[in-house]
Amino acid sequence: MAFVKANPRLKAHRFPGCGSELNLDEWGWRHPKNHELASYAPHDLKKLRRRLRLAVVRIRRRSGLLWMFNRAADLPD
Fold this sequence. Notes:
Elements: H1 2-6, H2 24-36, H3 45-61, H4 63-73
């Protein structure tokens, strides 16, 4: 905290100990679990890896979706 006080341009925000709704990674993984991989039952791990990799590629290509995750997390400015 001393570092933040010594640099008045910085703002520090305390987050709750378990605030998954504030974690952008949670939003990023929630989408493939609920949309890309919902009801998907692969026969082996190789097929799951391939499907997951394709889901991540599709998310990367949709920059608007990434911004939606950012807005949904509702992080302080």
